[in-house]
Amino acid sequence: MHAELRREIVRALLIQLGWTTAFVITLSLSIGIVFNMPRLGGWRTAIILLPLFPALGILRFALRQFRKSDEMQRRSQMEAVVWAFGASLVLMIGYTLLEVIGWPRLPMWVPLVVTQSAWIAAIWVQLLRFR
């Protein structure tokens, strides 16, 4: 691997790590504040939504990296996104039908984890397929 490519990969990983760390810290702090200080009133809504700012940073960075990629990388990412979307859609439709017959509500983090897992798995399949 060329030194320039290696530097770019390290740079991208450090930026992603920075945004993800900011998200986790902001999320932890906002949850801690909201649940330990119930007298905040209307401020609780604003505080609990603070993690959206680093999440938007992650999205902005991911879009920027996608735009900088070549045609093959874009194709691989698009295929991974389609698989992730399809997996989450099947889960949501299927479970919605199960809720009609009395199954308990599914927490919102479950479709999120399924979507992320399907996206990561599809990316790994692409990487292994085009080695």
Question: What's the gist of this structure?
Answer:
The chain is an all-alpha fold. 82% of the residues lie in helices and 0% in strands.
Explain this structure.
- Helix 4 packs antiparallel against helix 5.
- The mean pLDDT is 89.
- The protein has 131 residues and is mostly helical.
- The relative contact order is 0.08.
List the helices and strands and how they pair.
Layout: H1 3-36, H2 43-48, H3 52-68, H4 71-100, H5 109-129
Helix pairs in contact: 1-3, 4-5
- Amount of beta strand: under 5%
Query: Structural class of the secondary structure composition?
Result: mainly alpha
- SSE sequence, one letter per element: HHHHH
The gross shape turns out to be flat
Helical fraction equals over 70%
Low-confidence segments, given as residue ranges, are: none
End-to-end C-alpha gap: 14 Å
Question: How large is the count of helical segments?
Answer: 5
Mean pLDDT: 89
Rg for CA atoms: 19 Å
Secondary structure tally: strands: 0
Major β-sheet, in short? none
Question: Key terms for this structure?
Answer:
flat; 0% strand; 131 residues; 82% helix; mainly alpha; 5 helices
